[in-house]
Amino acid sequence: MKILKWIGYALLTILLLATAFYIKAYVSTENRLSKKYNYTLQPFEVKTDSAIVAEGHRILKTKGCKSCHGEDLAGKVWLDDAMLGRIVTPNLTKGKGGLPKDYSTHDWLRSLKHGLKRDSTPLRIMPSHEISHLGEEDMNALIAYLSQLQPVDHELPETSLGVLAYVLTDLDQILLIPADSIDHSRPLTKGVSREVSVKFGEYLSANCSGCHRKNMKGGPPLAPGFPVVADISSTGNPGKWSEEQFINTLKTGTTPEGKKLKAEEMPWIAFKNYNETEMKALYLFLKSM
User: For the whole prediction, is pTM greater than 0.70?
Assistant: First the structure.
């Protein structure tokens, strides 16, 4: 009986400690989500001719925006999990349930460059840390395309975080608040040189770093239930591929070894929208790592 009593005490202690940690994680995460950031929106005017809008659409596809926001960009329930919660991507059009009618160029810049809402609090999940690096011309093109989207009526439920989301955020195991990873003082880069070079490949690799880390060597799963992230640097399997094999993998989703890449794990469907120069530059950069 004494053993059972001590087991009971131990279980109660564990429960109290777990509850205390969850309360701490909840309060810490909610404080971060309500934080107002200090930043200055740089002067920015968008050019909107048809060629720029078309390029913006291509850039949007390379960023994989449709995989999260839907083909019509009207948003969707992206994740509904008992422990992680319900993650809803917003309607990016100005239809019912979408953005306000007066959503402006600077609102887009605040969201894409800084990962922030109009009230200067952070967006959730939105990978602005990967988009923030865009050069001035690319950011112009992306905003030009987004600004002319046709309204789609699509009302969605609110995002609600689960217990595990709060815990993993507090432990820095998931990137719930990308605004924390952005240098808000850095201006948009001017005159990105589009050439087959390591430097241009590094510029493009921001699309990869969110999963494969900045050193491109991958690591543990990004969240429970997700796969281990592969090493795509020169020391990983892609380091053995020729340039032609690398490009073919991005275009087809099939590796030289015959493995079919799952689009939900490796978004090759987005990356196949890179042009030849971009693919070659990215290959050079990854080989240099």
Answer: yes
